[in-house]
Records
---
Amino acid sequence: MSDPVVIETADLSKAYDASTEALRGLTLQVPSGSIYGFLGKNGAGKTTTIKTLLGMVKPTGGIARVFGLDATNPQASVAIRQRAAFVSEDKDLIDSMTVDEIARFTASFFPTWRADLAQQYRQTFDLRPAQSVKQLSRGARTKLALLLALCRGAELLILDEPTSGLDPAAAEEVLQVLVRHVATEPLTIFFASHQLSEVDQIADHVGIIDRGRMAVAGALDDLRAQFRRIQVVFDGAAPTPAFRTAAVKRVRREGRVLTILTSADADAVVAEARALNPVAIDVAPVTLKDIFLESVNAEA
Amino acid sequence: MLWYKAWLDTRWPFLIGLAILVVLACGNVFEYPTTARLLPLADTLPHGTGIVGRAIDEAIQTQRDYRGFIWWQWVRQNFTQTWTLFAVLLGSGGLLVSGSKGALFTAALPASRKQLLGIRAGACMIELLVLAVVPSLLIWLLSPAVGESYSLTTALVHASCMFLAGVVFYSFAVLMSTTFHDMWRPALVTCLVAIGIGVVETVVRQMGGYGVFAVMRAETYFRSGALPWGGLLVTIAISASLFYAALLNFVQLDL
């Protein structure tokens, strides 16, 4: 884990056909050792990004690197998959195998397979070796997929909607396993989700993708510290000003109120707002949910 | 372990195909005494005219001895048709079937696409070879049970020609599977192509030794003892080209 950045994309684009552009110049950096929450609405491009990083989808333009290796190169993508683990949204597994068979099958690809850890997780997750994968419940499938991902000694764990379809108790169990695992093993986790509470709970970095582009990215604490919502109230109808401060992400005008979302320099924005002679200005911190909603609901 | 997965993925069509071919092979052998008893009656029939009449005459003439009967009933019909059907089924689908269980899991493993397709094809080749050899050996083994003998060499020649030439349908089905990402369209298209080739070969008899089915049936070997080397080389070359095209397609595909 010597590279400071594990995943890096620049101007990444993918069009499945003339009318379906999944990625439109995505730029992303995932620091080594981080738990990176990759947020976006359904169809924002999260799964396409993941598949591109794993060499399953060929981008139409831009750069995609994992561990410094070119993800679009077939040989390099094999080397990437040797060091990365992936759990798909559907928890896709080989249904014709038993729990023990799929564990042995997976282990055969990874010399770094941790048999001790596999045994431990099998007991924790209450997975019986002879049980058929096909007959596992949704929750048990997720746990098995996680076991297979965590025990291969991967440096990067890529999860696509890891808790989708799980009840709150099962989702919490999965998140706790991830947190405990990352506390003891050197690992970067990149997980795509639209569950804001999960990302808020375990991520230290977030990226918000909207319509194939990165809308907001950074360390979660930095985002919380820097993003502000500024409400400016006027006597009459609010004006439609053009703010000079580059950090202004969005301005919404509703009657007498102007609501401004800024990613930094709140003081500079307040100073600009004062020049408009408002009757009141209120500066408030924002939650991840606010940042997400403001980012993905912005006009294209 | 990819070999094991390929076996799990293909075992049912293979085992069903093997069971059907074994039953058909046994059935053909044990049907011979009845046919042999009835053949003299065919001599009392008037000679046919037209395509159908000539075909009936040819069938009667060919089946006058045991070797001819086995070639006509087993090699020419049951063996060729059933083996081709299972070659098509084994070639159809695979990793690319939309929503197939295990496709993403397998694609996320540190194995190249060439490895994935190559190992699956390798497993299918072994299964197709078994589907060709086992029933052929049964014919050789069971023939004494009806008071006849069938040469081991002849059985193996027919099994080899069936496998080497018939693989062309497997390769075509694999190529179709990299074009249509479901199980049934590749199978259907390949079956239609096979039926089309069969009809053309029947109508244009001059194709003789070089039609795919004629090579699979080793017709020249049956009639004159000459192995269809040219036909085998051509069909092997076509199979290799089709499989290479499938590989190129597969490497480029988005999963």
---
Amino acid sequence: MRILVVDDNRDTADALAWLLQSIGHETRAAYDGPAALLAVERQPPDVIIQDLGMPQMTGYEIARRMRKLSAARDALLVAVTGNPPPDALRAAKAAGFDHLLVKPLGLPALENLLAQRAPKSS
Amino acid sequence: MLAALPRADYERLSGSLELVPLPLGRAVYEAGGQLDYVYFPTDCIVSLLSVTQDGSSAEIAIAGNEGLVGIALFMGGETTSSRAVVQNAGYAYRAPAALIKQEFNRGGALQLLLLRYTQALITQMSQTAVCNRHHSLEQQLCRWLLLSVDRLPSNRLEMTEELIANMLGVPGEGVAAAAATLQADGLIQYNRGAITVLDRPRLEQRVCECYAVVKREFDRLLHLPGRSEALQLSGFIDQHMDEIVAEWEAFAHTLLPAAATMTSLALRDHARPILQAIAKEIQSDKVQDKSTGGTAATTHGALRHLSGFNLLQLGSEYRALRASVIKLWRSHLAKEHHGALDDLARFNESVDQALAESIASYADELARSRDTFLAILGHDLRSPLAAVSMSGHYLSNAGLLGGKQELQAVARIQRGAAKMDAMIRDLLEYTKTRLGRGIPVVRAACNIGRICEGVVEEMRSGHPGRVFRLGISGELDGLFDSARLEQVFGNLLNNAVQHGAEDSPVILEAHGAPDAISVQVTNYGPAIPADALQVIFNPLVQVPTTGDERNSGSLGLGLFIARNIVQGHGGTLEVESSDAGGTVFTARLPRRGA
């Protein structure tokens, strides 16, 4: 599966990308909104895992723009946050996310999500 | 006069004092009669009269609350040729003659006071003689009115012209004429046997010098060291310590629930030294520098924090202390001071109210900014922690590590990250509750028995040296937030492991009843003291452990969060603790839609 990880904390983004790679996925990492949008254009991903708290362009804003790109229309869009505000899930869904996960991500939770997506992409 | 006595002297008398009514016209003593009691008027006036053989009389002096009736007794004469008649009805304390003689002979404060009073009385008698001989009837009437009103709580005298005439030893028509003039000038009002003084300053202008001479002498002679000490606040606090502490304590107990378990002793221990320090400071006229070392008040504040008092409650304790002191002091002060003191009390109340409101909002803001800071800290720690955690996963999954030691090191990283994550989770749950959001509860069908099994399994692997027992009975299916309840039971078990005796089991029992499911966590060991039990669910509270180590990884939030989650389910979480029964936490979770 092609997975794009978006997080302004490079270590976090890279760590997740490496972890997913180690279980057999093709991963890339982007560290801000414009880079993420560019990465989507270049190579449409199956899954995008994206931090909500980003500087400049918020996670919601990036999601809305991604959903407008044909390359990301069918991707599974997963929001990640350190401390979700009460209406985070509703706001995330409105922005185009499919799921909301709380940090730190456990491998089982991730694998669960990816398994949902797997049949569609294959 | 009694109020002017030092406390010790007064206490020797007080047991034998008897408050008696003295109606108008009552003869307290007859000329040459036997004196069984000495009378200390409180709000009545007794007139001392010289009586001639044909029965006509003239007043030689009056006695009110500044003095007493019966000086012949301690002067050694045993009896007197004057008569003592109640001129204005009221009450007096009377003391047995023998006791007064005995106290007089001690040679203490009472003797000094009685002798000085006698000298003042002689001045009054001499001045009366001069006044009756040389001054006009109107001046005499003014003197008599002023001296009388000085000894009464009001400006109204219950008197008839005829009685006044008898007192002054002059014809009734003369008194009537003088009274009519004073009334016409608006100085007094006279009707139906009562005289009301309306314009005291002008009455003082009209009177001869005799009034001032007598008053000055009484003020000079009776303004004794004993009296001034009794009126000074520092001395008053020292003398009335018990009363003040009792009042203060009564108030502190109204500050529930924080004070519910507080023993009286806990407050008394501090109230006394605090009050003593205050009394000392008033006397020395300056606040002592306490920058070094703790005072009773310092200790008191710290202990109040431990008892779960908030800033506002702590402040109101001191408000109550001040109000108690002023209230008690007022009742010991002369009436002329009451007005100013009442004003001051009302002013204090208003300032205190404003201060309390400000403290409350300030403390709220302070707490909010602290909680916001903690929320941001928790949030921001999660991102680097995610990097640590996922890198750990990566290393253990990728098969990069061959050696056993490397795998152990990675496992340590993983465990460390998991513990940090649990602490951050607690912290964020706490800030959510504090910032008014509450902990969200998402219900789904689950089985509490299975949740308990899972949690106990985890505890067993985490604490291989400890014994855990699980008891499950009844119908345990229901609609609950299983992840949150895992957290509740985990927190309770962690707490039990931390505080229970190491060689005793930790017991988790779940029982399903028709209306609710109850879950109990029990550990054995020394009981938690009542004071600590009171605040055990408060956030950031660390109940002292049996050993001297603090349970690292515990922020003192576990029980606070557990209770909030149970309450989020509409349930209750309570605790009981005794040496015999151990410490038992009981969560009661009502079924919903069951």
